[in-house]
Design a protein that fits this description.
With 500 residues, this protein is an alpha+beta fold. It has helices spanning 161-164, 258-271, 284-289, 310-313, 349-363, 421-437, 481-484, 487-498, and strands at residues 46-47, 53-54, 78-83, 85-86, 101-118, 127-135, 145-147, 170-171, 175-189, 215-220, 278-279, 307-308, 332-337, 373-375, 381-383, 405-410, 445-449, 461-465, 467-469. The protein has a domain at 247-498: 3-Layer(aba) Sandwich (Lysozyme-like). The strands form five sheets. Strands 3, 4, 5, 6, 7, 8, 9 and 10 form an eight-stranded antiparallel beta sheet that branches. A five-stranded mixed beta sheet has the order 15-14-16-13-19, with helices on one face. It has a two-stranded antiparallel ribbon with strand order 1-2. It is globular. The chain starts with 45 loop residues before the first strand and ends with a helix.
Length: 500
């Protein structure tokens, strides 16, 4: 990436200059690549939207599949894409019962995340998806695990360039299964209720058709990036961290808070060199000093929390679309859960993020990671979609309400599991700072215009909380009942951090 000089707005940040770069979290153990697979195993290469093929899924001549080579700058990763087909019909199958699709138990190259995709992004999968996996290098198979099937609500808005200008696929939520080398999957279509009419008890209901072109995606996140030593910024120039490299000049951004965005960018440029893995935290005084406020203005901005950059969690920048999309402001934050399950450690969070990123781009056809930020169960905050953490980056997180909002994904599934207090606190800290940059009150209300969803038709003006759950804009269970109940606490804490 090239360095980009940041426009000066006369902001002084002497206190921030003394802050060292924080080292990234220690890496998870490297995934095993020593297990051999039978020569009969084949995988389907995935072609991306630029016409190039992901050859990491091809078969090695000797039957063993080593990991793809990686450079010092980025970790390796790969996707195995396997077509699903009708499974053998059991001898005791009830007449009229729906045909189950899937894959019988089989070996695979090592992977850590699974999901199912299909050809038509507008089609919904009405049914259940279950998988079980075998831990790498063992004979231990997991129990059957459910995969969240209704994932169309996490996507770019209808009619947007990201939705219409790419080969976007329908997809389930991704599920983190840990280091595995065996898989079995079954997809059972939904059977609608039999009509209540004379003789209906003698007729089997017709199963809802499954989407065409279903494929199982097995994602290997690759290895964690090597930790980098802390280093100070050169005194003679403002070096730009990875989060701001290749971003357009401030003058090319929307007019909303241009000076504040430039000021905050300048602060980050001064405290980190190009390729920084962490944007360090600032105190509230340092945060307020980093923005260009009108004389006598009351700043309602929370302290900037520490944020692990994309480089810090090992994002392969060659996967995403090079250009960025921006909106005018950040008026609200939508909180999500990733629905990837809770069987991950905080050391594995970077691997989970790399897997979701690859699933969003290579499997689902999105331009980049869908969420603007992510939070793990230990309260660590991660940069999500590229374009600048201080900027109004257009995401693909809440269908119909991506414009002028940001999406925060709490890694895990929180329908029946309480979210850790550290994760809720991190949401409060992140929103207090980011919403504060755009003058939004975390305890307030905001009117947004729907881009079209299953809850609000396009063009409808909707009044909702500045910190909302995904379900407030779309008929979905996300962010899970347990996390949704904690949003009131997050709003109060966020506003308090802003000094309200």
């Amino acid at each position: 990436m090239r360095a980009l000089l940041v426009t000066s707005v006369g902001v002084t940040c002497a206190a921030a200059l003394t802050l060292p770069l924080a080292a990234p979290a220690s890496s998870a153990p490297a995934l095993s690549s020593a297990s051999a697979r039978p020569p009969s195993l084949t995988t389907e290469p995935r072609t991306d939207t630029s016409g190039t093929t992901d050859t990491s899924g091809t078969t090695a001549p000797d039957g063993a599949e080593p990991r793809a080579a990686k450079s010092a700058a980025e970790p390796a990763g790969s996707t195995q894409s396997l077509p699903l087909a009708p499974l053998a019909v059991p001898s005791n199958r009830v007449a009229g019962a729906p045909t189950v699709h899937g894959l019988p138990q089989r070996d695979a190259r090592p992977f850590s995340l699974v999901g199912v995709v299909w050809d038509d992004a507008e089609a919904e999968l009405h049914g259940t998806v279950q998988v079980r996996t075998r831990a790498t290098g063992t004979t231990r198979w997991s129990d059957w695990q459910d995969v969240e099937t209704h994932n169309a609500d996490h996507a770019a808005d209808l009619g947007s360039a990201e939705r219409e200008g790419r080969t976007v696929r329908g997809a389930t939520a991704p599920l983190w299964v840990g280091d595995s080398d065996g898989v079995e999957v079954r997809v059972r279509p939904e059977s609608p209720a039999t009509p209540e009419s004379p003789g209906s008890q003698d007729r089997a209901a017709t199963p809802v058709p499954l989407p065409e072109g279903m494929r199982l995606e097995l994602v290997d996140p690759g290895e964690d990036p090597a930790p980098e030593p802390a280093r100070g910024a050169p005194a003679n120039r403002a070096a730009v961290p990875a989060v701001f490299a290749d971003t357009p000049p401030t003058a090319a951004l929307p007019e909303v808070l241009t000076a504040e965005i430039a000021a905050a960018s300048a602060v980050n440029a001064e405290v980190a060199e190009l390729g920084a893995t962490v944007i360090p935290a600032l105190t509230q005084a340092e945060t307020v000093e980093s923005v260009n406020l009108a004389p006598g203005a009351k700043p309602y901005i929370g302290p900037r929390p520490k944020i692990v950059t994309r480089k810090g969690w090992g994002a392969d920048e060659k996967l995403r679309e090079r250009n960025f999309g921006y909106t005018k402001s950040v008026k609200a934050a939508f909180v999500h859960h990733s629905a990837t399950g809770n069987n991950y450690t905080c050391k594995q969070a970077p691997s989970v993020l790399r897997s979701i990123y690859r699933y969003h781009v290579k499997s689902s056809g999105w331009r980049d990671f869908g969420y603007n930020f992510a939070v793990d169960k230990c309260g660590n905050i991660y940069e999500g979609r590229a374009g600048g953490v201080t900027k109004a980056v257009l995401g693909a997180h809440t269908l119909g309400f991506n414009t002028n909002t940001m999406g925060i994904a709490v890694l895990g599934s929180y329908g029946s599991t309480n979210p850790p207090a550290a994760a809720v606190t991190a949401v409060s800290k992140l929103t207090a700072w980011k919403l504060g940059l755009f003058g939004a009150n975390p305890k307030g209300k905001v009117t947004l215009v729907s881009g079209g969803s299953n809850k609000y038709r396009k063009g409808v003006k909707v009044k909702m909380n500045v910190i909302s759950g995904h379900r407030d804009g779309f008929a979905t269970e996300c962010p899970g009942a347990r996390l949704y109940k904690k949003l009131g606490t997050a709003r109060t804490s966020s506003a308090k951090l802003q000094g309200r």
